[in-house]
Write a structure and sequence with these properties.
The protein is an alpha/beta fold. The protein contains 5 helices and 5 strands. The termini are close together.
Length: 147
């Protein structure tokens, strides 16, 4: 079961680009020893080929993820960005989406990917939930939404 721990909720994350968001999330995961070398490069390459920016309404989100061989665990990391950043659109990679919430799924076995994506999509398709994540004043509010 995928859950979000308080330490994996990043509120007011300051970044100016998709690449910077990915880098900051990877630094967070590396500090926790949750990923192996090559994770960030694989994530960026996957985003280049298969973008994850989603137009969902007023608040847009991205759901980056990559192959399980780079992960040491299974979990979700949620980032509410201080300001929206341009992210390549999943439906049309030539377009960009102004993303405010990023939900990264980390999974160490391929069969966990579908479960992760189902859980994420169930939450981010709800604009009121996304707005609560974006406007959360503490990490516990976000943990409650995802758990």
């Amino acid at each position: 079961m995928f859950s979000v721990s308080p330490e994996d909720v990043l509120l007011g994350l300051k970044a100016t680009s998709q690449e910077e968001v990915v880098h900051l999330l990877c630094e967070h995961l590396a500090a926790q020893k949750d990923i192996v070398p090559g994770y960030e490069e694989s994530l960026l390459e996957r985003e280049e080929n298969y973008p994850t920016g989603l137009v969902l309404g007023e608040v847009c989100a991205a759901i980056p993820h990559t192959d399980p061989q780079y992960a040491r665990t299974t979990k979700l990391v949620v980032a509410a960005l201080a300001n929206p950043v341009a992210w390549k659109n999943m439906e049309d990679p030539d377009e960009q989406v102004e993303v405010s919430v990023v939900v990264l799924s980390l999974f160490d076995k391929p069969e966990k990917q579908l479960e992760a994506l189902q859980k994420i999509m169930g939450i981010i398709q709800d604009q009121s939930a996304l707005k609560k994540v974006l406007n959360a004043s503490n990490v516990d509010e976000v943990v409650r939404i995802f758990n």
